[in-house]
Records
---
Amino acid sequence: VPVVGVLALQGDVREHLVALAAADAVGRAVRRPEELAEVDGLVIPGGESTTISKLAVLFGLMEPLRARVRAGMPVYGTCAGMIMLADKILDPRSGQETIGGIDVIVRRNAFGRQNESFEATVDVKGVEGDPVDGVFIRAPWVESVGAETEVLAEHDGHIVAVRQGNALATSFHPELTGDHRVHGLFVEMVRANLAPGS
Ligand code: GLN
């Protein structure tokens, strides 16, 4: 059974641990580099990306995170987690760093004031069956993608889910819906990475 960490510096960690268990993985909170070293994949939760970024630097996790993502560890970021996995933020707060790994530019809080939080059905490539119920909370969108980045979903003409190699990101929060198919997709990525070629 794959062991999947959830970066537990800030954000909706518990909801991801529940979703991972439902998707047949063992979820584990990760706060220290030694804990990061022991997981087969990692989820970066929703929350506040500036806070997660600062705490990652403070806890000595930023470089280990970058190293593991560069080495191909499967990662999945939701909302603030998507921002953390983007190579570039359109308008970063001062000092806000990202882990990177996905060759995209993200726009924070992109859906604007009138629409800060909403739900919408989203068709996600790779998720079988009905569209996913997308919960968007002060969500980012992907402003532009690089040549290697696959667009998995759009909402209102804006990119809200992407994948590049072993890195997956969604603007929305599947961990808040009770529908664990997106986590299932990610756990499959982790399994495939553990057993290459099988
Ligand atoms: N607006 C937050 C940020 O910029 C993300 C919100 C979320 O994760 N729900 O980090």
---
Amino acid sequence: NPQPSTLNPQHPMRVLVTAGPTREYLDDVRYLSNASSGRMGYAIVQAGIQLGWDVVLVSGPVDLAPPQGCEFHAVMTTAQMRDAALKLFPGCDGVIAAAAVCDYKPKERISGKLSKTGGPITLEMIETDDVLAELGRNKEHRWVVGFALEAQNPRENALQKLRRKNCDWIVLNAPSAIGSETNECEFLGPTGDTLAAWSGSKAEVAGGLVGWIEGQKELGVR
Ligand code: CTP
Ligand code: CA
């Protein structure tokens, strides 16, 4: 089992990244998901590797190849993402949660295939696990970075999310980032102060984010 590099200051930063969407199945052939491409998360993985980090990627289904050199764990459902992330987190120094997790799942998963009834149907949905909140609860000495995509009261809502999920920092994304090649975001700390802002291609934003975190090493953050 890999040990967190906290134990060895010479060791490169080892970072968990969650990325991509998750899927919640209604039956064996149908699922709910969202339109996340995974590009932001994969750009973060790439930027981390370029900086010399050991990156552990837990990814939902995307059309992207895992960046060369990362430790790759493929998942489909939120429960699988949660299980993988919680298992891998103790071996890391921190986590960047870039996944676009499906917030709800059908209360029951039907085995086989649901047949048409000839009329409307109602799906009962329940909340999925909050992966980031669980990582936050179990973080101990590790650092935790969340993402927030907010349509209204962006700073206020992002700060609430940071607190609710026990994050150290949160990346506030403009809704225009979805499906876009470019990104504009602010980086908030626990007091709600804007610590940095990045815009440009997802690679540029990812470079800004991992560079900022790496810079904290000098302040004793690992
Ligand atoms: N997240 C997660 N598990 C979930 C939902 C969200 O790990 N079940 C993480 C995301 O990866 C992101 C952060 O939590 O880093 C915020 O996600 P977001 O969808 O903005 O927040 P929610 O708590 O789901 O609230 P809402 O969608 O209602 O705004
Ligand atoms: Ca959500």
---
Amino acid sequence: LNRRLAEFGTTIFAEMSALAVRTGAINLGQGFPDTDGPEEVREAAVRALRDGRGNQYPPGPGIPELRAAIAAHQERFYGHLGLSCDPDTEVLVTTGATEAIAASLLALLEPGDEVIALEPYYDSYAACIAMAGGRRVPVTLRPRPESGTYALDLDELRDAVTDRTRLLLLNSPHNPTGTVLTRDELAEIARLACERDLLVVTDEVYEHLVFEGAHLPLASFPGMRERTVTIGSAGKTFSFTGWKIGWVTAAPELVAAVRSAKQFLTFTSGGPFQYALAEALALPDSYYAGFLNDLRAKRDLLGDGLRAAGFEVYQPQGTYFVTTDIRPLGHTDGHAFCRALPERAGVVAIPNAVFYDHQEQGAPFVRFAFCKKTEVLQEAVDRLKGLA
Ligand code: PMP
Ligand code: GLN
């Protein structure tokens, strides 16, 4: 393994899911739903397979039907904010958001460029910045125990920008903390990006999981449309994480750049799934509302249960993850806690420290996923009550 990747090892998600399988524990670690997405969308994939649509290389940028559906989705949900995109020049289908992140960074960074990312961050960010030869500069979201939320210090963000900063890599709703950046924070980030002439890659895969208020795409803020690469994922929005279909929307020059990298990573992405997801994106509002309401109820069930079990809970405003502080339970090391948890309580969770450069900042925090059946969450909560 080369020096760029040597520090990364095996992803925590693979490690913890393997631990769940080995111990038979309830897996609230890796973020994947235990209920597949809509039946009619699965049927659409079967139809495409059977009818021979997408069984051979689809067009590299994505099939026209899916690109049109992505553009229509942007218009439908964000048109009132002035956002729209051209399906031919401003949309790229990718192999999950994971490839969208990798291709964006590989396309846009020069070796030595600095990339600012909000810490804790989704684990692929650090590895992809490294593969692209960039230097990561973390800006830490700080826990605010009094309000049970995390906060971005905008002065800290501003101070992190140097002459070598090329790009901000953002994520809102934020994995793992569940933070949703406010309108004011996004406006300030947009001002900073314009002032310092920065590109922004914004990972908005949880755009349909904002529990209070509505999702605000960063690209809709003044001056951002032409400097922002926005990333979405069918895995998250339609509960098909195994299909690995995501997308990028951005101005034509940026999409062309990301496409250049994508060509040589995968060239194209799962054909029949693209046909099915073109239909999924057009599902009525009731689908999106139902998905959100279901996960809000699950957030509350798990959050209440964790509180009752003695955890300090950081209430997520978005995503399907909840971050907890384990210190009230008498523990300080999330790694050790998560390694022992299957044995002690029959539950698997993720230590937040893995999402930090400043690991000590994340040490006492542990993430649980609530994209699971109600009875599974209930059982997990019952088991965790035995910990105190
Ligand atoms: N970004 C974030 C913030 C995520 O949480 C995830 C998946 N857990 C991804 C990207 C990757 O998405 P995909 O499965 O579409 O590659
Ligand atoms: N994004 C999911 C999570 O944060 C896992 C994705 C993966 O396993 N790569 O849990």
---
Amino acid sequence: MEAVAEPGNLADVRNIILVLSGKGGVGKSTISTELALALRHQGKKVGILDVDLCGPSIPHMLRAQGKAVHQCDHGWVPVFVDQEQSISLMSVGFLLENPDEAVVWRGPKKHALIKQFVSDVAWGELDYLVVDTPPGTSDEHMATVEALRPYGPLGALVVTTPQAVSVGDVRRELTFCRKTGLQVIGLIENMSGFACPHCAECTNVFSKGGGEELAQLAGVPFLGSVPLDPQLTRSLEEGRDFIQEFPKSAAYSALS
Ligand code: ADP
């Protein structure tokens, strides 16, 4: 699909936030999705750019899978996930003929798509663009940061789980942020204990507090802990708005 390059496509985007994690499966896409929902809850207009090319899960989490990306004179029109058009989403998931198809691309093709995602999507006016990145610190991260850099200061939200291994990965993420000039907004510890749906008690399945300790050591803000919550898993699977259903949840307080 060829789009007409339009350098001004991000000109009306006020804040750009990259969501990073040291490894996969720690809840980066979950946090990106819940962050967008939390911002919408506060009346903001939000775009989500899913550059996790090999694991695009956000269309599913927002019940937008199977929707089509259209073209206008300014490039690709992102998919609106709600009637009010307050959350728009662009993902490689919309460009694949079969959503279960694996993206087996070499670096240059991935870089070209990332560049196109940045220059060719007609986001319009947005308060926030949330960018869900692949796990780790890869060439794709470099390509994303380089493509987005002209559009203003870039914030970074780093997601970790409490285990030491994940916390070690976060150290590398923070080094990446420092070297590439990303402004770390803060660290979120996800899957921090298990929230029992029956008695609301939180059990520490893994060790606890690693994220907070690391944030202190690294001198970055600690934004909060989000427990493993079966209701959150269900909301994500069914594409429901967890933040609206549970505005007093730990997820909302960490993200607002
Ligand atoms: P990543 O993007 O880091 O690979 P995901 O956001 O896709 O990870 O999360 C992996 C799985 O864990 C998903 O099925 C998601 O629903 C679930 N999950 C993530 N965080 C939580 C949480 N706090 N509570 C319950 N389930 C969660």
